[in-house]
Write a structure and sequence with these properties.
The protein is α+β, with helices and mostly antiparallel strands. It is about 40% helix and about 20% strand.
């Protein structure tokens, strides 16, 4: 059986270590595993402070879309994961629980969008679509939407400093995760 394996996007899956030999650089989203400040191993650049004095922490996440096309079966299989990058994520404040919860919400928002991508991929698969470009288009469009939502989240909560707004967003994200729970499994099956 011949397979063509491609990986999207631009995520280098490095299973190496940074400062802690017990931790991988990438942490897959898990509803039972929350971020801790020691997961933020990155170092901020000076330019971030010059342009964004409110920037105290940054959670870097990425949704990975992997697919395998079977030429003989004319089928496409997908696996979609949401990762937190420990090496690129940073903080200057390891005491604020409210800030940590804000960064967790960013990671959870990425999971919401990973599930939205899985839902759309499943719809396309069920419709018999095999053109990879269509799947990539959905992936890109939802990532653009995710960027806008992350910016809105930061704006409305003032980077986690408005406690009431932060709680509203937390509940909204939690409800979306529940609503999309049937798309929590990374592999897309027929």
């Amino acid at each position: 059986m011949k397979f063509l394996i491609l990986i999207i996007p631009f995520l280098l899956l490095i299973q190496s270590v940074n400062n802690d030999p017990g931790k991988n650089i990438l942490m897959k989203w898990d509803q039972n595993e929350k971020l801790e400040w020691n997961d933020f191993m990155g170092v901020p650049s000076d330019t971030i402070y010059v342009t964004n004095s409110h920037f105290v922490a940054c959670a870097v996440s990425c949704i990975e879309l992997k697919y395998r096309y079977s030429i003989s079966n004319n089928e496409v299989d997908f696996v979609i994961n949401n990762y937190f990058n420990r090496q690129k994520s940073f903080t200057c404040d390891t005491l604020s629980q409210q800030l940590l919860e804000h960064e967790q919400c960013h990671f959870d928002l990425h999971e919401v969008y990973a599930r939205k991508i899985r839902r759309q991929v499943k719809i396309l698969k069920n419709d018999g679509v095999i053109k990879i470009a269509k799947y990539i288009e959905i992936y890109k469009d939802l990532n653009i939407e995710l960027d806008s939502i992350n910016n809105l989240f930061d704006s409305e909560t003032f980077y986690g400093n408005k406690e009431t707004k932060q709680k509203e967003w937390y509940m909204r994200i939690k409800n979306q995760l529940v609503e999309l729970s049937e798309y929590s499994y990374p592999a897309i099956e027929d």
